[in-house]
Amino acid sequence: xxxxxxxxxxxxxxxxxxxxxxxxxxxxxxxxxxxxxxxxxxxxxxxxxxxxxxxxxxxxxxxxxxxxxxxxxxxxxxxxxxxxxxxxxxxxxxxxxxxxxxxxxxxxxxxxxxxxxxxxxxxxxxxxxxxxxxxxxxxxxxxxxxxxxxxxxxxxxxxxxxxxxxxxxxxxxxxxxxxxxxxxxxxxxxxxxxxxxxxxxxxxxxxxxxxxxxxxxxxxxxxxxxxxxxxxxxxxxxxxxxxxxxxxxxxxxxxxxxxxxxxxxxxxxxxxxxxxxxxxxxxxxxxxxxxxxxxxxxxxxxxxxxxxxxxxxxxxxxxxxxxxxxxxxxxxxxxxxxxxxxxxxxxxxxxxxxxxxxxxxxxxxxxxxxxxxxxxxxxxxxxxxxxxxxxxxxxxxxxxxxxxxxxxxxxxxxxxxxxxxxxxxxxxxxxxxxxxxxxxxxxxxxxxxxxxxxxxxxxxxxxxxxxxxxxxxxxxxxxxxxxxxxxxxxxxxxxxxxxxxxxxxxxxxxxxxxxxxxxxxxxxxxxxxxxxxxxxxxxxxxxxxxxxxxxxxxxxxxxxxxxxxxxxxxxxxxxxxxxxxxxxxxxxxxxxxxxxxxxxxxxxxxxxxxxxxxxxxxxxxxxxxxxxxxxxxxxxxxxxxxxxxxxxxxxxxxxxxxxxxxxxxxxxxxxxxxxxxxxxxxxxxxxxxxxx
Amino acid sequence: xxxxxxxxxxxxxxxxxxxxxxxxxxxxxxxxxxxxxxxxxxxxxxxxxxxxxxxxxxxxxxxxxxxxxxxxxxxxxxxxxxxxxxxxxxxxxxxxxxxxxxxxxxxxxxxxxxxxxxxxxxxxxxxxxxxxxxxxxxxxxxxxxxxxxxxxxxxxxxxxxxxxxxxxxxxxxxxxxxxxxxxxxxxxxxxxxxxxxxxxxxxxxxxxxxxxxxxxxxxxxxxxxxxxxxxxxxxxxxxxxxxxxxxxxxxxxxxxxxxxxxxxxxxxxxxxxxxxxxxxxxxxxxxxxxxxxxxxxxxxxxxxxxxxxxxxxxxxxxxxxxxxxxxxxxxxxxxxxxxxxxxxxxxxxxxxxxxxxxxxxxxxxxxxxxxxxxxxxxxxxxxxxxxxxxxxxxxxxxxxxxxxxxxxxxxxxxxxxxxxxxxxxxxxxxxxxxxxxxxxxxxxxxxxxxxxxxxxxxxxxxxxxxxxxxxxxxxxxxxxxxxxxxxxxxxxxx
Lengths: 692, 494
Hints:
Oligomer: heterodimer
GO cellular component, one term (chain A): mitochondrion
Family (chain A): Belongs to the MnmG family.
Largest interface: A-B, 69 and 51 residues
InterPro entries (chain A): FAD/NAD-bd_sf, GIDA_C_N, MnmG, MnmG-rel, MnmG-rel_CS, MnmG_C, MnmG_C_subdom, MnmG_C_subdom_sf
Number of strands of chain A: 24
Pfam family, one (chain A): GIDA
Number of helices of chain B: 15
Strand content of chain B: 5-15%
GO molecular function, one term (chain A): flavin adenine dinucleotide binding
Distance between the termini of chain B: 30 Å
Shape of chain B: flat
């Protein structure tokens, strides 16, 4: 289920003027109130909480600045987490010891893995989440994180100073100015401000600024960013109305029950907090021609639809669905908002009609005939910053030590925001420690795909993760995110706890051992057939079959295999996750070998670094068209691989860049050598002359 | 998309030249690549009425001005008559038509100039020398114009290969085929397949990313499956066709075979119009396989003369017979030669039974070997013709000695070879490159995996692989293309 996420975050936060200044809540009770931090994170949404927690985990003294502590961890749009592609991101966030997966395991009310029948590489972990519980659990987590301080306050401006000469960028951020005029200094700043930039709410023909009146702090910050020269674009999204639960006739609708057993999001959760039988169901209903009629008759009352601003193609409002795919019945999922909530979220009914028409539309849908609308749906239009202005570590090209994460980069979705948050928090911390950035390649994770797409291609619609965006989908699976990222996070960054590291290490060695045992067990096909009559093994095959090959059969799992050959295999079925992961490894074994080759090729091309300080506009020694120069100047690709993915950069330009990089490298190598052994170089030079 | 691009880049980066040893900065070695200006005779070598010399690169305008001084550049893309003279000595070279194509609207995308000069060798070499004396110009490497055109996005990969064919076309049939390929007909065909495949993949991807609780229409997967099946059929048919294209490039293999002393070598010499094989009245004169490339009725062919087929000769001749039989199996067309006056002899009868009869019968897969039966030495026959023999298949009468029957043979050869090579002016564009065949086969294999796989992620991977193979021929193949189709075809998301 994919839908508008995050969209109302700042709406809720900024509609109230209440502001507590300098009220600090620290997980580190011994820490004195400081005015200087290593990392400041602005915003307490899904990107902000992950960024702040990640920076603190890396050992940086971190300050989270938010309008209101009680909105930290607010799910402003849909009451669910995960899904296809999004579940993959959550697993990766968890592998780096991020928060959202663990919090979801403590806050869900309906856990269901999507795509169960389509292969484990595309399983989509998903759950309906209790908004209140999620917020409570997230706040508890944030407020108890060592090294992390939370302060209420609105940021008015950035403090900028001279740039560090060894890095690119025209200035360096060194702190923030709050609305009350006070300043807080920091070595890095992460901006996760969602839709704060000129956010506007639209219902029918009414439009009002999401941040009310001129004293909003986001206005000042927006001005600063614009003055610095950041390129701004505009996007729109929307959210459906909310309906009173007791006014819906569920008895005539299709009921969807949760999985039994529930699969937790986090690698370190054994189970989720709630038993399947205690979880809440979802219900399915459909639109009908009557809905189309109301939408089509009232287009003139709908300014959100008329706007040319790009909305998401995959999260369309009911208006755009009716316009683009007329005469069809569209699905509407009725989702619970929480255990004790009396609201229902009609997923699929995002709408910006005037409120009274929304109610009229709702009541012509089956099951909703007597439905009471508690809150109307609305559209949100907001500015975002072209993500080609940030590096793969999410630092901006323009301002040193300033990081962007979340919706500000043009993405949509809680999970996309969380994924960027973790990376921005880690890198903000690494930057303070003058350590090299932590970049996830597109060969290593969906996080890498997400950030590479954003930083090289940019986006002109709210960007959402799909599994089809990942080239190496069979390798980047939800089940193996820990083996891809946990070790890197532990060794390179230190953002992973000892407990998680040990768990991942145990899993890794158990898997390796299990696979080699499965490879070593060989019987004839007829013997296998006798041992496991359920399997559709054809007996004609003359070659012996390995247990690993038998495990590939759809009907065979580790349990069945361990019953057939108990001696060496029994110990691998004691852990549910291990048994399941062995089965998955078996399914993809043959294809993964080839995919590893391709991954190596891509990694080679990513190893060809382009110098960071290259001035493409004036670069003399390379023949490049002005158009290509501008594109490279804007995106500043860090590798030849990234440059080749920028649309409009011709193969000729890549060859020239490649040649330039090679000669620069050789020149550099020659210079280095020159300083070491002058004489040697002279002799080799003479040799080369003779060759020429 | 990006992987494909990388391959191209890597290929282009390697380039035709050997790696240049690293030189220190400021050595003054010109940077190879699009910075330099290249020139070449592009109308082929040898005697001709008009020869065309081309330049490409930033110094093209300068070169054109230098040779046509004191006149300025002609208007873009219109032919002008100019007196060409050597820029150094001022010596007049030729009166020629010149054309000026400022980039990017030119063949290579760079600034280009064309000199249409009189075709004498002295004029051509004079103009080439003059161009070589212009600073910044150097002779082009083979195919360099085309590579530059490709690098600037002026040609698709298919077109580049078609162009390479054009350059190397030696016979009329090859030229016709190369022209067709340059028109992008093969490209169109591949693009069509790639379009079908992309759509099928998009539907499978949509089913994976949205199928669970969005209401995709019923039967999305079934539709993709049926599209894949159709594609399999089309590719399969084309790949069987593709072998014909291959033959055209290197020439069809025509093997002359028969019993000893039937006149095979005489026939080879007659067809190739040169004494390829030693001819003697003694049986067993030809002991090895002799090959000669010939132009047979407008088609390139590789003509093989073989040892006469008989048992019980010496070890050398036996080896010759073994090689002859081997060659017979590889032949696209067999020219079976018999002595018309000696049809009843054991060696003739044996040959008719073991070679001629099986070839005519054909194999169950329809891949029967083509064979023309030639009865030589018609001059030795009595006026009534050969002995009436009811079992003898249709044949041609020929006298290598007098040349009688040669026209009939050539006409029969033209018909057979047109079948073997495919008629490039009427048939579908043939796949003339092994590379194409390789990728089409790879595509077909991957589609096979798709249909056999149950795990949908694996099945989609097979389709991605198949699409990657086609993209190697047509270019393109990005993810965004897939997403565009998904959002165009389906109402997804809520």
